[in-house]
Each structure stands twice: as structure tokens, then as C-alpha cells.
Design goal:
By secondary structure, this protein is an alpha+beta fold. The protein folds into two domains: 81 residues, 3-Layer(aba) Sandwich (Rossmann fold), CATH 3.40.50; 57 residues. It contains five helices and eight strands, in the order E-E-E-E-H-E-E-H-E-H-H-H-E. InterPro entries: ABC_transporter-like_ATP-bd, ABC_transpr_LolD-like, P-loop_NTPase.
Length: 183
């Protein structure tokens, strides 16, 4: 598994997000072995590697979704392990935008409600949250599916709705998880 910076990182300054010495094992299966990654403000990074090499596990540890067995993750100078579950959830809601590989949208909600969900969870009123969400659906060119449920839209439309939901809170870190495909 390797990481590549896709642009010139902002010069100097500490990394916004850093993982050091990360290890994670699921039962007998080692997923991460001494993994490390640094991301600076405004930097775009691709993590590449074969299926099962630990990319999702790495991203989940860096985002505080999973706690590594060993190692440290620091975001904006704060060690994620020092935060409570509630604080880590709040951080994910406000600072991280995630586009998952599968099953990311809530099937019972319309696409508009899915995009508005992070804002609603943050306490925004429905009408305002849906107005902001509608703006993102428009930017992603999927306004026409706003009132459909995820099961009624194409795979590409669903991915765009998921991207809109990841961006709706203006997060500082955006994750896009997708399997590497050889060839
Ligand atoms: N919840 C889990 N329980 C048990 N094993 C797991 C779990 N999640 C991941 N693994 C195992 O950990 C290893 C790394 O998985 P991970 O999902 O991080 O790989 P990946 O590089 O993201 O794969 P892909 O490109 O196929 O999505 C694999 O061997 C996988 O089977």
C-alpha cells in the first residue's frame, strides 16, 4: 500500500492530519502493520494498493471511525485517542466528509433528506438544511433525483448524492473510499 500526493502541499507548517505507527488486526487477520500517513491543509492524497491491503482500515483509523490497536492519529494537533466517542462523532460530523464505497445512503430517506442529514444532526432546522442540500444537489447536477429514494436512482447518481452529502458541511478533510482496480 502506498500514498501519493496529487498536488503540491502547502509549504511548511505541521500536518493537519497524521497517523504514525498504525497497527490494526481483525481476529487473526492483520490489516495494518506500522502504517503512517501525513496530510497537510489543501493537499490531495491518493492511497493505492491491492484489494485487502488495508486502505479502508487506514482511512477509518485516520477518521476516528476505528481505533488502531497501536499507533497515534493526530488531527489539528489533537490526539484522537484522547477524545471521547461523542467528541469523535462530533468531529466526523463537522470536519470530515466521507464518501463510502458501498451502502452509504440511508434507504428510507429521499436523496434530498440524505444530503440534509449531517446538517440536521448538527442542529440545523429542516427548511434551511434542505435549502443548503438542494444547492449541493444542483452543483452535483442531480437535482432531478432530490425526491427519489436511493433505491430508485442509478449508481452514478447515488455516488453524486453521496459526494453532496460529504461536502454539505464544508468539511476540512474529505475522504473518498474506492477499491483499486488493476489494469
Ligand atoms: N471488520 C472486519 N473484520 C474482519 N476482517 C476485516 C474487517 N475489515 C477488514 N478486514 C480485513 O482486513 C484486511 C484489510 O481490509 P481493508 O478493507 O482495509 O482493505 P482495502 O485495501 O480497503 O480493500 P478493498 O480495496 O478491497 O476495499 C483484509 O484482509 C480484510 O479482509
Amino acid at each position: 500500500m502506498t500514498s501519493t500526493s496529487l498536488d503540491e502541499p502547502a509549504a511548511g507548517g505541521p500536518p493537519l492530519l497524521e497517523g504514525v505507527g498504525l497497527r490494526k488486526t481483525f481476529g487473526q487477520t492483520p490489516a495494518l502493520h506500522d502504517a503512517a500517513l501525513q496530510v497537510r491543509e489543501s493537499e490531495i492524497v491518493a492511497v493505492m494498493g491491492p484489494s485487502g491491503s488495508g486502505k479502508s482500515t487506514l482511512l477509518h483509523c485516520l477518521a476516528g471511525i476505528l481505533l488502531p490497536d497501536e499507533g497515534r492519529v493526530t488531527y489539528a494537533g489533537r490526539d484522537l485517542r484522547s477524545l471521547s466517542d461523542k467528541e469523535r462523532s462530533a468531529l466526523r460530523r463537522t470536519d470530515f466528509g466521507f464518501v463510502f464505497q458501498f451502502g452509504q445512503l440511508v434507504p428510507e430517506l429521499t436523496c434530498l433528506e440524505n444530503v440534509a442529514l449531517p446538517l440536521r444532526l448538527g442542529g440545523m432546522r429542516r427548511r434551511q438544511a434542505e435549502r443548503v442540500a438542494a444547492g449541493w444537489l444542483d452543483r452535483l447536477e442531480v437535482s432531478d433525483v432530490a425526491n427519489k429514494r436511493p433505491g430508485e436512482v442509478s449508481g452514478g447518481q447515488g455516488q453524486r448524492v453521496a459526494v453532496a452529502r460529504a461536502l454539505v458541511t464544508n468539511p476540512r478533510v474529505i475522504w473518498r473510499s474506492r477499491s483499486w482496480w488493476p489494469g
